[in-house]
Amino acid sequence: MHQAGRGLQVLSIPAGHVYTAAVRPEDVTYLPDPDIDGHWWPHPALGAGWWEQLPEEELPDLVHLHFGFDHLSPAQTVAFTQALRRRGVPLVVTVHDLDNPHLVDQQEHHEKVRLLVDAAAAHLTLTGKAARRLPAGTEVIPHPRVVTDPPPGTGRGEAVGVFLKSLRSNVIADPVFYRILGRAVYRALGRPLRIHLHENSAAANIIHALGKDQAAGHLELWVHSPMADPTLHAAVAACRTVLLPYQRGSHSGWLEMCRDLGVTVAVPDCGMYEGQADDPRGVEKCRTGDPLDAARALITLYERGPVPYAGDRVEQLRQIRAAHRGLYRKVVGR
Q1: Co-location of 263 and 180 in the same domain
Q2: 182-228 pLDDT, tens per residue?
Q3: 3-state class of 64 per DSSP?
Q4: Residues linked to residue 317 through DSSP beta bridges, in sequence order
């Protein structure tokens, strides 16, 4: 139960993530993330036993769950929600991933999302398209800005890029996809497809397989260590348009970063990515896993030219924080 005169104490799972830190209202305190070998996951508060041992005076006003529950089974998810109910702590859930980008079989993930939403005092998501797949009453609060200090030259990039990073399981890793894509882009625009890859064993297959295309000028393979944010933002800003190379998922902070930098994005039709767009001209949808359709989308965007972010990101962030503040107060007041 909320204590009068005390600012709201929220257990956000997680608290220190760039997204959750951004949306936190200034007059709300997030309880600190645990340090588990340098990480916050798996968060111990997702275990029913953690709540049974927590003293009454240490109870938060509410729990806001964003992500990090992948390790739970459906039964453990129920146990978590029941433990919160027994302690009188309301649950708020933001559904970032209707489909978990790191899983091929979505059945268990869908079940856990349903259980969490059913148990929640309030549930949110990031786009209207996602809300239409969730129960009535789902509130939509958009993703906030990612880039607060754009690098010089933002909005004047000329490259056509794709950032594969460390080739996580939701990223298309088939070299044939990029060979076909790169050749189609080069034929239409006379520009190589710039492929960014982290320097690790996962990238070795693509680097070897695409060597001839790089020699022919169809592709540029940029292999590097993970970039600090300023370096990453400069690399993205050097592009006029980029491909989001996902084969499943729902929403994307990467897309938001690109749009902060005025870069247009070819997005797959597997998620709600198109619905995140600040300006419909800033994205072009393509069939997931189809290299020729991805090339068509990139070519269309490139020829369309630069599309600056439409709207006021500072005002949007103020509204996002105000929406979270209002929601928290409403939930605690029940």
Answers
A1: yes
A2: 999 999 999 999 999 999 878 889 999 999 999 999 999 999 999 99
A3: strand
A4: none
Let me know how many helices (H) and strands (E) the chain has, helices first.
12, 12
Q: Which of 136, 126, 209, 173 is nearest to 291 (CA)?
A: 173
Contact call for residues 241 and 302 (beta carbons, < 8 A): yes
274 with 229, same domain: the answer is yes
Does residue 250 contact residue 267 with C-beta atoms inside 8 Å? no
Domain count of the fold of the chain: 2
Alpha-carbon span 277 to 95, nearest angstrom = 18
**pLDDT given at position 334:** 55
**206 in Cβ contact with 175 (< 8 Å):** yes
Q: Please tell me whether residue 272 adopts helix, strand or coil conformation.
A: coil
Q: Which helix (H) or strand (E) holds 273?
A: none
Task: Look at residues 143, 174, 195 and tell me which one is the last residue of a structural domain.
Answer: 143
Q: Is 275 a domain residue?
A: yes
Does residue 86 sit in the same domain as residue 206?
Answer: no
> Residue-wise over 124-152: b if at least 16 C-beta within 10 A, else e?
bbbbebbbeebeeebbbbbbbbbbeeebe
3 state SS for 221-236? EEEECCCCHHHHHHHH
Range of the domain at 125: 8-143
pLDDT digits (tens, 9 = 90+) for 253-287: 999 999 999 999 999 999 999 999 999 999 999 99
- Is 208 within a domain? yes
Confirm whether 334 is domain-assigned. Answer: no
Task: Indicate whether 297 and 168 sit together in one domain.
Answer: yes
The reply to whether 35 and 95 lie within a common domain is: yes
Query: Parallel, antiparallel, or unpaired: how do β-strands 28-30 and 62-65 relate?
Result: unpaired
Token pair, residue 284, equals 């072009």
- The end-to-end CA distance of the chain, in Å, is 10
Cβ contacts of residue 104 below 8 Å, gap of 6+?
Answer: 169, 248
**Same domain? 199 vs 294:** yes
